[in-house]
Amino acid sequence: MATTKLRSPRKFGRVIAAVASLGLVATMAACGGGDETTQAPGGGNTASADELSGEVRILVSSADASDAAFNEVVEAFNAKYPNAKASLTSVPNDTFPSAKAAQLTAGEVDVFVVKTFREIPEYAEASKSDDVLLAEGGGLIDLTDEPFMANYSESVLESQAIGGRQYAVPTGLSFVTGVYYNKSIFEDNGLEVPTTWSELQSAVATLEAAGVTAFGIGGQDTWPAGLVMNGVVGSLYPTAADKQAAVDGLWDNSIALNDGTQLEVLEKTQWVFEHAQRNFSGAGYDDMPAAFSRGDFAMLPDGTWNEPTINSAVDGAFEYGYFPFPASDNAADNAYLNGKIELQLAASAGAKDPDVAVAFLDFFSQKDVYTKFVATSGFTTTQPDIDQSDFLNSITDITEQFEPVWEELWIANNDAGQDAVYPFNYPALAPLGAQSAADAAAAANQAWTAAF
Predict the structure, then answer these.
(1) Which end of the chain is more exposed for a tag (fewer CB within 10 A), N or C?
(2) Same domain, yes or no, for 166 and 213?
(3) Rounded distance between C-alpha atoms, residue 429 and residue 325, angstroms
């Protein structure tokens, strides 16, 4: 799972330098000789398994299930193309932006995950992501005319187009705002799945009266605690239009982060923090599936991407379910999960062997390879007519209406301070941080308004 971070001027400069250098590399590659048995990117890879040669270095942001899925693809690619070499590096989410910038600058990566990859309103033009700037500056290979891109759903491709062109393979969809729950613990305590905020509060009170910890959160890396914030936002701003209105209102300063629904987001997020396991700020995200399987807590806010890991940890010890986080007292507001496009893969225009980089994306996109990838990763498919897991089939009633998660619409202001990055200042909330909801909201509002 990715989080949005402000770019420092130094890092921003490095990435812009990378755009310039990548453009030069791409120009030199276009003028060079090349292998006559393969076509250049844009024309499709026609090399046979024995003819394709070179290497492709792949960089992704780390999660256990998706790492395993990418490794399977890499192994299968290497088996099919004995004279080509694909290698995978996975980097923790919090350090991924800096690692990617450094590797791009050094020319050490060919295919990589792009973040915040979407067009944004004119009023936030200065906040375009580094990866969108790369695409616009010629730093990414244009995949629009590659035949394998037609394998993906048109609506997904439309949502990630930059200037009407395609620069990334959408590896899947994930739903972010759900809560895994231990059915045995719920049944033992006479609980039903909560569908409103009041019902959730009542369920937590019942659990704690029985000596059961309500929530598990892996707060050590910070971003997993943001899953709670995204769940709250998903209920209090239940539609894409509601979220977009909040984004617009913050950018034109007609609403404030320390008032109304914006403050309520932090108040309810903090309430969940206060009912999580002790010292959750020091707990690792990767440790949560095992803790859930032990029954250390009844509920785990987490995304659908982590279900394969959770399922492996539980290993049939009990049944578990998944429900949308209910932060509103109107059940209709809590009816659907919020989701996002996951781990979009782009190819650098300065790739060492661009035909091999595109061949890897082509291989990834083939139905048999992609079907196995989504099964291992836990992602929801972005290709039509792909078989999905029993778990994903079991939650179709809460995913049938797609609603984007907050971070898919939010645009950070590069001139605002760290307290307004998300902009709901959940890292400051005690016991993850040290502040009350009111103080964290005030700090966020001050950082936000100071940018204008």
Answers:
(1) C
(2) no
(3) 19
Torsional sign, CA 313, 318, 321, 325:
negative
Q: Are 263 and 437 in contact (CB under 8 A)?
A: yes
Residue ranges making up the domain that contains 18: 9-174+341-398
Same domain as 345, residue 421: no
Helix-, strand-, coil-residue percentages of the chain, each rounded to 5: 50, 15, 40
pLDDT tens, N- to C-terminus, the chain (452 residues): 333 322 232 233 333 333 333 443 333 233 333 333 333 443 445 567 778 999 999 999 988 889 999 999 999 999 999 999 999 999 998 899 999 999 999 999 999 999 989 888 889 988 899 999 999 999 999 999 999 999 999 989 998 999 999 999 999 999 999 999 999 999 999 999 999 999 999 999 999 999 999 999 999 999 999 999 999 999 999 999 999 999 999 999 999 999 999 999 999 999 999 999 999 999 999 999 999 999 999 999 999 999 999 999 999 999 999 999 999 999 999 999 999 998 999 999 999 999 999 999 999 999 999 999 999 998 999 999 898 889 999 999 999 888 999 999 999 998 999 999 999 999 999 999 999 999 999 999 999 999 99
CATH, residue 275: 3.40.190.10
CB atoms closer than 10 angstroms to residue 299: 29
